[in-house]
Amino acid sequence: MSEITLSGLEKRYGDTLAVEDVSVTIDDGELLCLLGPSGSGKSTTLRMLAGLETPTDGEIHIGDEDVTDRPAYERTTATVFQDWALFPHKTVLENVAFGLKMQGTGKDERRERAKEMLERVRMGEYADDDPMNLSGGQKQRVALARALAVNPDVLLLDEPLSNLDKRLSEDMQIELREIHEELEETFVHVTHDQDEAFTLADRIGIMADGSLVQVGEPNEVYENPKNRFIEAFLGDTNFVAGEVERTTAESVHVETELGREVVLPRTGDADDADALTEGESVALSLRPEVLSIEPADAATSDGESDRTQPVRTDGDTTNAVVGTVENVLYRGSTIRYSVAVEDTSVFVERTVADSGAFDAGDEIRISWDGADVLAFRDDGSRVDL
Amino acid sequence: MSGTHSSSALPAPIARLWESLRERSRSKRALLLMAPLLVFELLLFVAPFLILLRISLTDGSQDLRYAPGTWSISGYGEVFTTDVLLNAITYSIKLGLLATAITVVIATFYAYAIWRSEGLVKSALLFSVILPLLTTLVIKTYAFMPLLSPNGTLNDVLLSLNLISEPIQFVPGTVGVVVGQVYIVLPYAVLAIYSVLATMDWGIVEAARDLGASRPRSVLEVVVPQAMPGIIVATVISFAWSVGAYAAPGLLGDGQNKARAFALVVEEQLLTNLQWEVATAYAVVMLLLMVVSIVLLTATLNYFGGEFEYA
């Protein structure tokens, strides 16, 4: 049983608050990713879990035991460090056997088990090598084998893939996922790379400025972010400033810097207290994947005279604007267009396979369903529509 | 890992040095770059030693400090026929081992403390190790007289605390010599070990603790093997200096016949008895003994350093 409970965890360095009131329960066998920009306190949180930092407040329970004040060497956690921290004066095998040696396992047995672990990470043939002569990816595997060799209740991974190149990192993500499924141990994985977090995690915990902002399954935090920070941090998006013009039972009408009104449908279950007041300023998030684009003349050819105000029937929440392509950015599999709309600019994306590429100067029509738009208040909190 | 072929009969460090020299000498460019150093060594180290060796082989029967041009082994005769040599060797080696052991242990802890400390504390610790280096050897050694003598500060404190009933004579005496010698070599030993520790990643100590190594165990398993090159240098410096010590035994020792350091015997022959061939013979014998013991010491330490590598 290795369910982990963090309650009110805090770490203070002098006047700096590195981690503030982090509370979360990590289920037995779960893979939780702590995701956040550098300095968000995710590594400090992990180090407190490992026992390498002492919390200034709060408690850590692993299973039924309170381990808050227990030193690292008396915890059933094992860590894979960002820079791997392999012992330079020991061979690869000795590195992997180290934890077992500390546990008092006999020499033959620990060598055998270390060999097994090395085989598992496909490093068996390097057993007698000096770890300093290995490549980054190989060191990573040895560090993983070393941590797994002690059969920990909880495996802690502190940005272990951030020093690897993209391709290698992606391969390792898949391998980590496989190892996790095989061992059914609790993993806590710290990363600043959202792709990595989305690939690996059962649940993602997003950290910002020392706080755990939101914990949830990957699609949940992506589609239903708690605040503007998460919306901005996960993926790319356009924030469009606006002002609430009027609200009805079915929809919210926002006058935006796009030069036109954007209609957001109300889902109906919103609390009255949460309702927006007229004149309140909001930021709308238009993710490139919800924006569809087409040549502007295609829209005007069907008789539309005011091209920024398409005909809309009742209940239709389709919105559209027309803008001019400012620049074109090739990003490999996708093309990103930066489009000037009124006083602001938004970017949209197309996959290279899509037909009809645009050039700078082209007029294009951008349309989206208002239901796909998220709105945030000035204080960053999400508007519950 | 050591002693691959022909050099396997030699002690490991010598074999390694020999290998690296052979490798280096393959390149003429390297030899050329080494030339200034070689000339320097020849002029200031090898040449004087040859002169010393020559003087030790002169005839001492004439009433001269030494007789140029004569050949004799009478100097060595006197060295090996009296018990002065044996007493001096015994005393100097004992002093060397004792001072070295104390120095290296203190230096290791001290260097570790510097390494682990931060900010002002680190600066203060480093500063207090460097400060004695800026003071003249004689003055800092002599400073132990008022501190350790029977009516000195330490005895006053011990007496006033009723820990002792009568003053203890630390100085002049062997306790004073050891204390003085440790004080002289400690800064060098600390710096030698600290310079190695400074390049070490604290992360590997954390990794060791994370894998279940207690604090002392993690230091023993991870820090000490890593710091071994520095510890070896510190040991060799301390030992060589302490065995050949002159200032501390001279100023703080009681000069009794059996408690006389080697350097003092040489001094007596050189300046009091004016028997240069005997003095230089002592010096030559001493030098050979030193070389042998340092090689043995280094080999031993390397062996124990290597012990830690086995999982």
Question: What does this protein structure show overall?
Answer:
The complex is a heterodimer of chains A (385) and B (311). By secondary structure, chain A is of the alpha+beta class. Chain A has two domains: 4-225, Rossmann fold (3-Layer(aba) Sandwich); 238-377, Nucleic acid-binding proteins (OB fold (Dihydrolipoamide Acetyltransferase, E2P)), CATH 2.40.50. Chain A has nine helices and 20 strands. Chain A has a six-stranded mixed beta sheet, sandwiched between helices. A five-stranded antiparallel beta sheet of chain A has the order 13-12-11-14-20, with no helix packed on it. Chain B has one domain: MetI-like fold, CATH 1.10.3720. At the A-B interface, strand 6, helix 2 and helix 3 of A face helix 10 and helix 11 of B.
Write a brief structural summary:
The complex is a heterodimer of chains A (385) and B (311). Chain A is an alpha+beta fold.
List keywords for this structure.
heterodimer; A: 385 residues; alpha+beta; Rossmann fold; OB fold (Dihydrolipoamide Acetyltransferase, E2P); B: 311 residues; mainly alpha; 73% helix; globular; disordered N terminus; ABC_transporter-like_CS (chain A); ATP binding (chain A)
Largest sheet of chain B: none
Helical content band of chain B: over 70%
Count of DSSP strands of chain B: 0
Q: Please tally the helical runs of chain A, counting DSSP H or I stretches of 4 or more residues.
A: 9
SSE order and pairing:
The complex is a heterodimer of chains A (385) and B (311).
Chain A: E1 4-13, E2 16-26, E3 31-35, H1 42-50, E4 57-62, E5 65-66, E6 77-80, H2 92-102, H3 107-120, H4 136-149, E7 154-158, H5 166-183, E8 186-191, H6 194-200, E9 203-208, E10 211-216, H7 218-223, H8 228-233, E11 238-247, E12 251-256, E13 261-265, E14 281-286, E15 292-295, H9 296-300, E16 318-331, E17 334-341, E18 344-351, E19 363-369, E20 374-377
Parallel strand pairs in A: 3-8, 3-9, 6-7, 7-8
Antiparallel strand pairs in A: 1-2, 1-4, 4-5, 9-10, 11-12, 11-14, 12-13, 14-20, 15-19, 16-17, 16-19, 17-18
Chain B: H1 12-25, H2 28-56, H3 74-81, H4 84-116, H5 119-130, H6 137-142, H7 144-148, H8 153-160, H9 174-197, H10 202-210, H11 215-243, H12 247-252, H13 262-272, H14 276-307
Helix pairs in contact in B: 2-14, 3-14, 4-5, 4-9, 4-11, 9-11, 10-11, 11-14, 13-14
Protein name (chain B): ABC transporter integral membrane protein
Organism (chain B): Natrinema versiforme JCM 10478
Subcellular location (chain B): Cell membrane
